[in-house]
Amino acid sequence: MDNEDRKILTEFLGECWFAKPSNHFEACCCGDCLDYRQCNRTFDTWEDFGALLETIAKKTEVDAFELWLWKQGYSISNIDTHNGPLSVLKAIKEGVL
Q1: Cα gap 70→43, rounded to integer Å
Q2: Which of 41, 70, 39, 65 lies closest to 53, judged by CA?
Q3: CA 56 to the chain's CA centroid
Q4: Contact at 8 Å (CB) between 65 and 83?
Q5: For position 9, what pLDDT does the model report?
Q6: Distance of CA 69 to the CA centre of its chain
Q7: Which helix (H) or strand (E) holds 78?
Q8: Would you give the DSSP letter of residue 77?
Q9: What is the DSSP letter of 19?
Q10: CB within 10 Å: which end of the chain, N or C, has fewer?
Q11: Is the dihedral of CA 80, 75, 86, 54 positive or negative?
């Protein structure tokens, strides 16, 4: 997963993606972060994956995502922190979410 993928997932969560500022006068979009590298999610933890699942549930797209996962050979119960975020990313790119 590269930074462009992480940016897509971050924006799906409704959060800001913080790019490296072009100069020291630029601030991040929320104004809360002093270092852009500390604010961006990595999507390699259960916390980040849980945030994705919560966002899917809030958008009431759980059934569509679970059906899509099933067609991919997975279920919510057997995905982990590696293939879970990648599955969400793929579902977003395919228009499922």
Answers
A1: 22
A2: 65
A3: 10
A4: no
A5: 92
A6: 16
A7: none
A8: G
A9: P
A10: N
A11: negative
Is the confidence at residue 2, as pLDDT, over 80? yes
User: How many secondary structure helices (H) and strands (E) does the chain include?
Assistant: 5, 0
Q: Is 31 helix (H, G, I), strand (E, B) or coil?
A: coil
Q: Which two tokens stand for residue 26?
A: 């630029």
Average pLDDT of the residues of the chain:
80
- Per-residue CA distances from 54 to 12, 31, 35, 62 (Å): 11, 25, 26, 9
Of 73 and 60, the structure prediction assigns the larger pLDDT to 73
- Side-chain half-sphere of 88: how many Cα atoms within 13 Å? 31
- Of the pLDDT bands very low, low, confident and very high (cuts 50, 70, 90), residue 37 is low
pTM of the model: 0.72
| DSSP E strand stretches across the chain | none
